[in-house]
Amino acid sequence: MHRTSAALPLLVLAFAALPLGATGCASARVHSKREPGEVPRMSRLFIAGSPEDANNLKDRARLGALSDAVGNHLAGRGITASAHVFEPRELGRPELLRQRLDEAKSDGVLLLTLAMTEAWVASGGMGGVAAERTATTRVDALLMPAGSDRRVWSATCQYGRTSKASQGILDSCAQKLVEQLFQDGMLAPAP
Fold this sequence. Notes:
Elements: H1 2-24, E1 29-34, E2 44-49, H2 57-75, E3 80-85, H3 94-104, E4 108-125, E5 128-145, E6 153-161, H4 167-183
Parallel strand pairs: 2-3, 2-4
Antiparallel strand pairs: 1-6, 4-5, 5-6
């Protein structure tokens, strides 16, 4: 009897931890690529966001939140940043982007796109098959010097989870992207 009563709390604790392990392991992953050649270190960025679906107001709002989060993380590390979410057709007009860059006095452009995909994943177990809805949030980033169309750095931040992009997910991706920009030597705070 003593063994059962001692083992019961451990068994309850083990079962209680299972759901935490299954949902808590999702995290943002960033893969980046610095293009070869001499690259000026930038200290003032213009963050240009472009939604994949211009008609989806939620995507525009999420992209605005992502752009703001990137700007906040950059400011926390001494980089001046301003942001604007463009309509996809606006990005086809270079004079509009040049005007925004001139107004912001930026030495680089960080172009962000946000994509979310949803899928049903089948899983089996205990004599049956269950389907689980999953969502993946992907942020693509391109960095170009102002006045140039030469990409000097690119990155993808991916966050898999069973819910759509929340502010926490977007902030996590923003933080990881900014960390990667510094790690890859792309940014330097202004003196």
